Amino acid sequence: MSRLLLERHRRLREAEVFLEDVPRSGSFRVALVWPNLYFVGMSNLGFQAVYRLLNRTPTSSASEPSSPTTRQGRARENGPAARELRNGTPLREFDAVAFSVSFENDYLHVLKVLRLAGIPLRARDRGPRDPLVILAGRRCS
């Protein structure tokens, strides 16, 4: 991952204000992705509720919501660029990648994130090592 992108992620993490400490203990890891601007996704209360719910469930653990950036596209030469914001874990290492789509144009961003993460776009092309892709609360085909 590029130094510029790492610095941007660090600044975003430092600016976050958490209202409660949500424990993460489950073994089923879910990456929450808002397929649009970071600030729009982080202010979405529904997305925050899903994050809280998944982390309160003993069997699951959700990453803090992430969103793609244009700089991630430029970092492609360094390997898969779509990563979780907090720890920089590649999205393809999660058990599931969940997207919340509010606008039609965001479907294109979902495809971009999957491509950058190295996750096949079509479910039939995904194997047992690829994460489950969840779109707006249902499994994608």
- Largest sheet at a glance? 5 strands, mixed
Total strands: the figure is: 5
Q: What fraction of residues sit in β-strands?
A: 5-15%
**C-alpha termini separation:** 30 Å
- The Rg value, from CA coordinates, equals 14 Å
Order of helices and strands: HEHHEHEHEE
Helical segment count:
5
Largest sheet, spatial ordering of strands: 2-1-3-4-5
Shape: globular
Uncertain runs are 70-80
Mean pLDDT comes to: 77
Explain what the structure shows.
The protein has about 140 residues and is of the alpha/beta class. It is about 35% helix and about 15% strand. The chain contains five helices and five strands. The protein has a five-stranded mixed sheet, with helices on one face. Strand 3, helix 5 and strand 4 form a beta-alpha-beta unit. Mean pLDDT is about 75; it is low at about 70-80.
List the helices and strands and how they pair.
Elements: H1 3-15, E1 28-33, H2 38-42, H3 45-56, E2 60-62, H4 70-74, E3 96-99, H5 106-117, E4 132-135, E5 138-139
Parallel strand pairs: 1-2, 1-3, 3-4
Antiparallel strand pairs: 4-5
Main traits of this protein?
single chain; 5 helices; alpha/beta; 5-stranded mixed beta sheet; globular; 33% helix; 141 residues
